[in-house]
Specification:
The complex is a heterotrimer of chains A (662), B (232) and C (322). By secondary structure, chain B is an all-alpha fold. Helix content of chain B is 67%, strand content 3%. Chain B has 2 domains: 46 residues, no CATH class; 181 residues, Four Helix Bundle (Hemerythrin (Met), subunit A), CATH 1.20.120. Chain B has a two-stranded antiparallel ribbon. In chain B, helix 2 packs antiparallel against helix 5 and helix 5 runs antiparallel to helix 6. The longest helix of chain B is centred in the C-terminal third of the chain and has 31 residues. In chain C, the strands form 3 sheets. Chain C has a 5-stranded mixed β-sheet with strand order 3-2-1-5-8. Chain C has a 5-stranded mixed β-sheet with strand order 4-10-9-6-7. In chain C, helix 1 runs antiparallel to helix 2, helix 4 crosses helix 8 and helix 6 packs across helix 8. Classes of the chains: A mainly alpha (662), B mainly alpha (232), C alpha+beta (322). Chains A and C meet through helix 5, helix 9, helix 11, helix 12 and helix 13 of A and helix 1, helix 2 and strand 9 of C.
Amino acid sequence: MSRLLAALDPRELRKAARASVGRGEAIYDGPGWGSPAASALDRTWREKPGVRGWLETVDHKRTGKRFVFTSFVFFCAAGILAAIMRSQLAFPDSHLVGPDLYDQMFTMHGTTMMFIFAVPVMQGMAVYLIPLMVGTRNTAFPRMTACAFWLYLLGSLSLWVGFALNTGADAGWFAYVPLAGPEYGIGKRSDLWNNLINLTEAMGLMVAVDLATVILKMRAPGMSLRRMPVFAWSILVTSVMIIFAMPSVMLAANLAQFDRTFATHFFNPAEGGDVLIWQHLFWFFGHPEVYFIFIPALGFISTIIPTFARRPLFGHTAVVLSMIATGFLAFGLWVHHMFATNLPELGKGFFTAMSMMIAIPTAVQIFCWIATLWSGRINLRAPILFVLGFFFILVLGGMTGIMIGAVPFDLQVHDSYFIVAHLHYVLLGGAVFPLFAAFYYWFPKFTGRLLDERLGRWQFWTFFVGFNVTFFPMHLLGLAGMPRRIYTYAADTGWGTLNLVATIGAAIIAVSVLLFVVNVIRTRAGGEAAGDDPWGAATLEWATHSPPPAFNFVALPVVASREPLWAREADEPTHVSGLSAQVREGLVTTVLDALPDVRYAYPSPSIWPAVAAVTVVVWLFWSNVTPSGMWYGLIPPAIAFILWYWPTRRETAEQLLLQRRP
Amino acid sequence: MTPSTGAHPIQSSASPAKAWRREREATPASIPAIRRGDALDVSMLPSYGFGTRSLMWWGTLAMSTIEGMGFVLMILVYFDMQSRARIWPNEAPPPDLLWGSVNMVLALLSIIPNLLANKAADDHDLRKVRIWLVVVLVVVFALMGVRWLEFHALHIRWDTSGYGSAVWVLLGLHTFNLVTNFADFVVVTAVMFKPPIDGKRYVDVAENTGYWWFIVLSWIPVYLVVYWAPRL
Amino acid sequence: MTGGLHDVEAPAGAQAQAIAQLWHVLLPVCTIVFVAVLVAVFVALRRAPRATRETAPDVSSLSQPEPALARAVWAGVIVCAVLLLGLLAASVFTDRALARLPLEDALHIRLTGYQWWWEAQYDDPAPSRIFTTANELHVPVGRPVIVTLVGADVIHSFWVPSLHGKKDLIPGRPQTISFRADRPGVYRGTCAEYCGYQHAHMVLYVIADTPNDFAYWAARQRAPAAKPASALAQQGAELFLQKSCAMCHAIDGTGAQGRNAPNLTHVASRMTIGAGTLANSVTNRAAWILDPQQFKPGANMPSQNMAPDELAAINAYLGTLQ
């Protein structure tokens, strides 16, 4: 331990380092927005202007907004596909869209909504909010999250460019083999899909690792696990689930791609393969995926309800434990997507029991929310309207979920429109309604302006009515025997009327989304100024400006209560001081009690995450075209990642300047 | 700034103070945050830390979990196909044991220089870090050579049958980890030869040598499945 | 194209009946819970006073327990858990009822799913009594049927809602489903697992006949194709062999032995053509033969370049294949 740091004289090094960073007296951070520390922080954290700064940014708020914006654009695109499909199905024997295009459209719709919209939008919201909520200046690995965004953007664009060139994936969002395999999946359609899975799942994993690390290790001093906001819990649970579940679908997509590129036989029953392996690997990921989307939404709700009920969440601990329980149980459900593939009796009983049991933690949370509303004083604003809509729709979707957990009933309605209805009730009710609530709630933090309340109410009611008009009739269609994924149906099936009703509902939903877009554009142009804390909320993101500066907080907060902005204990320190304002420095705390432990120099902006993302995408496509691309294509990413890691002179100098050995 | 109210950490009636004391006892070398008036001064905290104090340690743990899931699932794929076959493997003799076993022995031995490099990094002993990193590099390079021979000892191509596909991908998955970790070692070693050396680089060395445990430990089940499962 | 029942709530077989009973337990229980939760939300909203953002938050709950609320939440959770246990029991009992269909004297059918049609082979201990048909199953009322499900290319799924839930046809993993029709009638089934372009036109009719009618139908199906009775039909039979028809279709008792498409030995006895795409009428058949892609784009049958008189002859011949 007592050996010298290096062969060189450390004092010399420090001197050289100070010269390199190029400032005189050291400035440390501390409170006061107008202080010299604040302007030093601003200089340190401000990013380069222009395209270069745009590509290099590692600001979690910019990356988070990019995720949210991009995924919302894709949400609209996939919604337009849904509207076209609904138009096709409005009348029997319709010729608006042929089978080839229709198959691509529903595959693109499902793939986009699940992989390109739902997971990234939740992760994007978390990337923006979590560092603010736990009181730190950036995520743990902001370059990795920036790289994840570029992978996601390029992967999603490639899938949609393929669709525009009539090479859209067409084997369903679940891409069952052999239909997506080498023999029946024609052209490059399924290759694009497999690439997308690789890229979006890599994105999901990278962001999950980053978020879990921030939540575990970078919370403000005093924010012990007991005091951690429920939203941070929801993202922690989700991130851990992602780490265990996403490798499964990545492996599946790669095995499928090996079958396609290298003629392996994983899914070829004629050569010892097994087509059901795909389904097990896919649903071992696919069922938890529903909860990657749903659990962050639960976090939104548990954050929004207390603010508008003007009291802390009732049953905080029960809600947190319920989310953890949901996370575990979600891994025991995957087979209920496979009831029709013939399972042993014992397995059926187990998976039925699991499917029903997972309703209990959700029930606990719903009752805790009702108890919070019941005993609170309610500020009835747009975000809480969407939460109320969530109650109606999610509970209905949960009820049909319990029904299809029963194997015999599922055998009837599986792959019918009953399931289409159920999954939209669960996913739109369980994720999109809370997401709109979250947009209305946090939009002032993102932009400094409040979304228009009146338009918000109009949007809510059109969405709520349109949603139910669209999807409720689908339950009845399923019971009447209408299977999913058919591009047309005959008149004598009697499905025409309900389909027409559903299509009318879809038009109302389209109006609603349009109202939201109008609201956003109008507000950006000149909405009501929000101030730092427009709702009188309790969590730390409201303790800084709206929108927050690049460095988030002039001084990192110290937390002494579960509701840091509502309740303080006397005689507690209120903030951290002594972090450098000239170098991007933050604080690492201990996992359980969030005690200050180590100072941390955040990564600086870098072009290499974007370059690395481009090279990885090139590698994937190269390997689709020629198998040797699999090997040679690895060289550019390797170079990019090495340059990404390689410490610059300036970084080393900064490290040495701040250096204090453990 | 108001003068220090003593070397007290967060002062509060609640449990954090107690927990903080517990934490200090656990890491006596660390200098605590100091309360100054309303502020908690952290300027005396170390600027980096080893093990669970390092963020990258958590990132590495997560990466190992992700890759570990990959191995677990791939092994399940292998056994699913085996359970459906009457004779396994039908198309080829089981792989030769020689090179896989050599690899196993070498992998286990490679833990020694890795541990020594890890210890040297912990001690900030640049000379020893350099020596042991170079030794590790040589060993890992040898492992990759043996791996090359292993592929030739499989006696089957990946496109011959489901069994061939499974063993190639299992072995390939581990090789991918081996090669990327080798590349990591090359870079980390190069950085340790490029002064000035800041303390965080020692953490990088420690984490890379720590990750090597995952490569070795994951090789045990993969080795058993590829070489011994066909002989059951 | 020709109707047929397809309704989960209108069962015509023992098993669909058991599932419909389960549905009649699930629906009221779930509805009551749904309404109860919404009423609780509504009452909470009505009773809580209104506030604004300036309203000081009430943080007393951070230090004081709220036993009344806790009791209410506990009660709600316990009620839910009990109801779920009840539903679980109902589900398990229904599952056992499904598995316990008596199978003595069962009819065995081997059903193979192709992109996008069904081939049914009626098994019999005597090989000469085995026969093959397509896209239409006849079954005797009251007698159990065991269907062996075989996926020939991609995964399909067998689903006749009025008779039973669904089961998949998985390449490399044959499995069986058994059911019993209890009322005569036409029951429309369909492929329920997405299987490519024409997943929408992969209908399978199950026609439950009285035992006598079934025996009559089966006897006719076992017979080879009828000899063409008219000169036009005779010409059609010859054209069928000369043109490309026989490369894919089989007509037992003739030289046509293709196995890539539905067996047409008794095609005229079926209700539809193209696996439920069109009603089996003379004009529809003619239109279909000329240009199947117009009705079922992507189907494997190519459009035919055929003179009107040739078409009329082939159509006349097919019409005789009762």
